[in-house]
Amino acid sequence: MRTVFSNPDKSDQIKRYWSDRARATEPSSAQATTYDVFLRRLEISTLKEKLEAASLPDGSTVVDLGCGDGYTTVSLAAEFPTVRFIGIDWSEEMLALARQKLLTLEAPPGTVSFRLGDIRHLSADLHSGKFEVFLSVRSLINLTSSEEQYDTITQIAEHLTPGGYYFGIEDFLQGQRNFNHMRAAMGLPELPVRWHNHFFDEEILLAETRNLFDPVALESFSSSYFLATRVIYSAGCHLMGVEPDYFHPIHRTAGMLPAIGDFSPIKLICARRKLCKEALCAS
Predict the structure, then answer these.
(1) Under CATH, to which class is 8-282 assigned?
(2) Using the 8-state DSSP alphabet, how is residue 140 labeled?
(3) How many CB atoms lie within 10 A of CB 264?
(4) Cβ distance 101 to 76 under 8 Å?
(5) What phi and psi, each to the nearest 5 degrees, are found at residue 62?
(6) Three-state SS for 167?
(7) Which candidate, 182, 175, 121, places its Cα nearest to that of 148?
(8) CA–CA gap between residue 213 and residue 269 (Å, rounded)
(9) Alpha carbon separation from 29 to 100, 173, 220, 231 (Å, rounded)
(10) Are residues 267 and 219 in contact, defined by beta-carbon separation less than 8 angstroms?
(11) pLDDT value for 279
(12) Which of 76, 166, 178, 198 could form a disulfide with 271 if both were Cys (CB 3.0 to 4.6 A apart)?
């Protein structure tokens, strides 16, 4: 049994932060969980490719943990009309935005549902249910400790069908250091990890999950995007004395670049649940 260390006060502060973000966001906006809309589009297209490759049978269920405003959930549901999507979030305000997305984005009727819940306690939300796919998009980094994060990943494995998939878009310390090194080379200040985020360590994640999933891989899908937008474009803005603009055309075009290098903190965790149930007992 894993001992989980958490900071209840900080968890409450993080929850309030995202609820305040939701209240300050227009229902039609896609900026509730990040101001970089084109980064969200890149994340969605990356997850779409993974779900297509998974060849999910009709009637499969995808659970989106920490779904926020539901933009990713509903956008994916529109691409997979025979798959059911469940979005879980701890913020009522974010879920209010998510339900608005259902009214404006073209997901097939009845294929998406949202529910209030805490991703740290999946059994309370999902009971004994087993599901084909779990997603997380910059949500586990809002937990306050590594212990909480890996306990949640263990619960994900427990609620996956044998051979089911976990696709997690989360932030990592190694990529953060790499792109800040590139920023320094361009005379730009370091971008710190924000107060409400707890980034993963790549080596620790691979070690912690090897008994639960086989295989586990990390993909630096947003590396070129970050190099173009957070380094080259930001350096140009610095030279011209202007603030970077998330709607500048470079953000739209940067998402078309093939991924090269390791210049982004945001990476994709691709994990498939082991078929052998004994693997979970050994963890």
Answers:
(1) alpha beta
(2) G
(3) 24
(4) no
(5) -110, 125
(6) strand
(7) 121
(8) 11
(9) 11, 29, 27, 26
(10) yes
(11) 44
(12) 166
CA distance 264 to 180: 9
Chain centroid offset of residue 14 CA: 16
What's the rounded Cα separation, in Å, for the pair 88 and 62?
A: 11
Which phi and psi (to 5°) does residue 3 adopt? Answer: -85, 125
Determine the longest span between alpha carbons in the chain, in angstroms.
59
- Given a contact cutoff of 8 angstroms between Cβ atoms, the answer to whether 264 and 175 are in contact is yes
Residues 226 and 177: beta-carbon distance below 8 Å: no
Residue whose pair of structure tokens reads 């055309």 in the numeric block: 249
Tokens of 235: 């350096």
Tens of pLDDT along 137-173? Answer: 999 999 999 999 999 999 999 999 999 999 999 999 9
The pTM for the full model equals: 0.94
d(CA 4, CA 26): 36
The structural domains of the chain, with segments of one domain joined by +, span 8-282
Q: Are 271 and 154 in contact (CB under 8 A)?
A: no
Q: Tokens 């609820």 appear where?
A: 19
How many whole angstroms separate alpha carbon 5 and alpha carbon 12?
Answer: 15
- How many Cβ atoms from other residues are within 10 Å of residue 18's Cβ? 22
Give the model's confidence band at 134: pLDDT under 50 very low, under 70 low, under 90 confident, else very high. very high
Q: Tokens 């900080």 belong to which residue?
A: 10
Nearest of 103, 146, 139 to residue 118 by alpha carbon: 139
